[in-house]
């Protein structure tokens, strides 16, 4: 199985946004940069998935919708990816879903870094940059996956 983890793109800062944190959206730059990252990874043959799971928070859902359009993949909102979650919650929710062989999970920091560390059995948590992507392979269980690569947007876009 292949699982990709992607942090949402650049969103408005909390101090710039007057609404709830749940509804805090991507900035225009966040939308453009996210689309550029996904398109470039797809064009390079680095990113192709059967399905996308997303946090219900607006900034992550916007990121997932961009990826779904570029990758032509179905999107499911998965509460187990909301901000503040953990691997146990995600895997418990996954038990109720048909888990595809190749999955993209879109979520938040520091949750994604912790999940990748737990899935790979690593004691160090990777910090995901906004619109950063990691690819893992193996069995979707704690300690049973291998980190294939992690790419920050600058690694993909060369800026």
Chain-wise SSE layout:
Layout: E1 2-7, H1 28-43, E2 51-54, H2 58-71, E3 75-77, H3 87-94, E4 102-107, H4 111-120, E5 133-138, E6 145-151, H5 153-157
Parallel strand pairs: 1-4, 2-3, 2-4
Antiparallel strand pairs: 1-5, 5-6
Helix/strand structural class: alpha/beta
How many strand units? 6
Q: Could you describe the largest sheet, including whether it forms a barrel? A: 6 strands, mixed
Overall average residue pLDDT: 94
- Find the CATH superfamily: Phosphoglycerate mutase-like
In the sheet with the most strands, the strands line up as: 3-2-4-1-5-6
Rg, alpha carbons: 14 Å
| CATH class placement | Alpha Beta
Structural account:
The protein has a single domain, classed as Phosphoglycerate mutase-like (Rossmann fold), CATH 3.40.50.1240. Helices cover 33% and strands 20% of the residues. The chain has helices at residues 28-43, 58-71, 87-94, 111-120, 153-157, and strands at 2-7, 51-54, 75-77, 102-107, 133-138, 145-151. Strand 5 and strand 6 (145-151) form a beta hairpin. It is globular, with a radius of gyration of 14 Å. The N and C termini lie far apart (31 Å). The model has no long low-confidence stretch (mean pLDDT 94).
């Amino acid at each position: 199985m292949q699982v990709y983890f992607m942090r949402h793109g650049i969103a408005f800062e909390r101090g710039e946004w007057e609404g709830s944190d749940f509804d805090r959206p991507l900035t225009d730059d966040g939308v453009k940069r996210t689309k550029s990252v996904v398109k470039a990874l797809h064009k390079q043959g680095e990113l192709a998935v059967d399905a996308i799971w997303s946090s219900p928070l607006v900034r992550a859902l916007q990121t997932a919708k961009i990826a779904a359009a570029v990758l032509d993949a179905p999107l499911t909102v998965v509460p187990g990816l909301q901000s503040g979650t953990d691997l146990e919650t995600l895997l418990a929710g996954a038990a109720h879903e048909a888990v595809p062989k190749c999955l993209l999970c879109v979520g938040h920091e520091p949750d994604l870094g912790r999940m990748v560390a737990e899935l790979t059995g690593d004691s160090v948590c990777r910090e995901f940059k906004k619109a950063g992507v990691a690819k893992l392979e193996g069995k979707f269980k704690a300690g049973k996956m291998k980190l294939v690569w992690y790419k920050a947007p600058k690694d993909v876009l060369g800026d």
